[in-house]
Design goal:
Bound molecules: protoporphyrin IX containing FE
CATH class of the largest domain: Mainly Alpha
CATH architecture of the largest domain: Up-down Bundle
CATH topology of the largest domain: Fumarate Reductase Cytochrome B subunit
């Protein structure tokens, strides 16, 4: 029988169920496996790209299956629980069913948003668009959707364990036909006097609460790890103490980097940095800027750990980087070059940062970019000095929106 009845699942619902289950049971271990793959050679980088692409492609396939499954479930009668008389069990079973439905939509969606918000890296293997419409390239969005993907994976993982535990209990302890009626070709024995379904809306509500917890955890994580915007103490104090102080609006400011890895552009950003800005276009001699960067706050697509390791940014031994400039040259109206010193991985070298400045009322909009030659700082010197696997140039992009502080 193709369609559901009040007693059992039809073949279509069964096939949807087992296809989803197989894909999920492949995707979770695949995701956990691929994120910790090393990338110490061109072959390893290629392998990692390959597994990411495989994960994304299977994830998109699951998105399609999950979407069709949900649509099918909406128009189908819902088989009544066989142990409906045990109220606690049926409450738990139905709450988990809703949570599973929600997670199989949310998982691929957050994964795809994460993929769309970043440049390059491992493509989805299909001829259609790579990016979701209306999703901007944004490192903040990538970070939030990445956290949402991880946290939803935890919720999904726990739900699957409980769900499989419940199904096994029915098969082994209760010895009823709950499992049999989900398996094609098995003939379940269904009691004639099934109890009336109860708790339907309560279980939707309980599952909703689980998702509200999930949203709250993602929100808290975003604020605590600095992807959100907490006004920075040092900047605020400095700005208040200086005549021409500017307070950076971290919500609208980014410190991003771009590198080329095996011919593919990979972008990332620092979520924790301070900028003490004392700038007056009429008094360049008295202006200065000091930027402190928490190196460990770098997110660089799937290779953050590699970038922070001892052969590269060596975040453990050199957790802070600093750029200080008190020499500004005006090239043309609104375009300047800040000449200063960059301290990175314990070494200090001169660096020029060309930037444009636009001031509207009491807001300043700064856009700047410069190139850091990584070998000058011995970054990736061991095994990566040729630039064929990892480009020698690191593009640093600064976008600052700051508000003037009046004393
Ligand atoms: C791994 C991913 C899985 C997901 C996302 C999943 C999802 C779901 C969902 C949403 C339902 C409710 C269907 C409905 O009533 O509309 C369901 C039912 C069911 N699932 Fe799964 N499932 C998974 C794995 C499994 C596994 C591995 C088993 C077997 C050990 C299993 C056994 C069952 C059974 C027996 C039912 C029917 C429950 C009943 O009739 O009350 N599921 N599953
Ligand atoms: C139901 C479908 C999916 C499941 C169960 C799943 C599961 C996972 C798991 C368990 C991880 C490792 C944990 C983590 O670091 O976040 C992961 C990572 C990842 N997934 Fe998925 N995923 C799914 C769909 C997708 C899709 C559709 C995409 C993109 C189109 C995607 C892209 C990614 C990426 C880029 C990562 C690595 C994140 C990082 O490097 O931090 N996933 N996924």
């Amino acid at each position: 029988m193709l369609i559901n009845t009040r007693e059992r699942y039809g073949l279509i619902a069964q096939l949807f169920h087992w296809l989803t289950a197989c894909l999920i049971l492949i995707l979770i271990p695949l995701g956990l496996f691929m994120v910790q793959l090393p990338i110490n050679s061109t072959e390893e980088i290629g392998d990692k790209f390959w597994f990411y692409s495989l994960h994304k492609t299977l994830g998109i396939a699951l998105f399609a299956v999950a979407g069709l499954r949900v649509i099918w479930a909406i128009f189908q009668p819902h088989p009544v629980l066989l142990n409906g008389e045990s109220k606690l069990e049926s409450l738990a079973a139905q709450t988990i069913h809703w949570t599973l439905y929600g997670s199989i939509i949310l998982m691929p969606l957050t994964g795809w948003i994460h993929h769309s918000a970043l440049e390059g890296f491992a493509p989805i293997w299909w001829p259609f668009a790579q990016d979701l419409p209306f999703i901007p390239k944004s490192l903040l969005l990538a970070s939030i959707s990445g956290t949402a993907h991880t946290f939803t994976a935890i919720l999904l993982g726990i739900s699957v364990v409980l769900h499989v535990g419940g199904a096994s209990k029915h098969a082994v302890i209760d010895r009823d036909s709950t499992l049999a009626r989900m398996v094609p070709c098995m003939v379940p024995t269904i009691p004639a006097d099934l109890p009336k379904p109860h708790f339907r809306w309560l279980t939707v509500f309980l599952s909703g609460i689980l998702f509200a917890f999930l949203g709250t955890a993602i929100g808290i994580n975003t604020v605590v790890d600095g992807s959100g915007s907490e006004p920075n103490q040092i900047i605020t104090e400095n700005a208040r103490n200086s005549e021409n102080g500017w307070m950076v609006n971290h919500d609208k400011s980014t410190l991003a980097i771009e590198i080329v890895q095996s011919g593919t552009q990979v972008s990332g950003s620092f979520s924790n940095w301070n900028a003490k800005i004392n700038f007056d276009a009429e008094n360049l001699g008295g202006s200065y800027v000091v930027v402190d960067v928490d190196i460990s706050s770098l997110t660089l697509d799937g290779i953050s750990q590699q970038a922070l390791s001892s052969n590269f940014l060596n975040a453990v031994s050199f957790p802070l980087s600093n750029f200080t400039s008190d020499e500004f040259i005006e090239n043309e109206k609104g375009n300047y070059v800040a000449q200063g010193q960059l301290t990175l991985v314990g070494q200090t070298k001169p660096l020029s940062l060309p930037f444009s400045l636009k001031i509207e009322n009491d807001r300043a909009f700064v856009r700047g970019q410069t190139v850091v030659q990584r070998l000058e700082f011995d970054i990736g010197k061991k095994g990566y000095s040729e630039g064929d696997q990892i480009g020698l140039e690191v593009l640093v992009k600064v976008k600052i929106e700051a508000e003037k502080i009046f004393r």
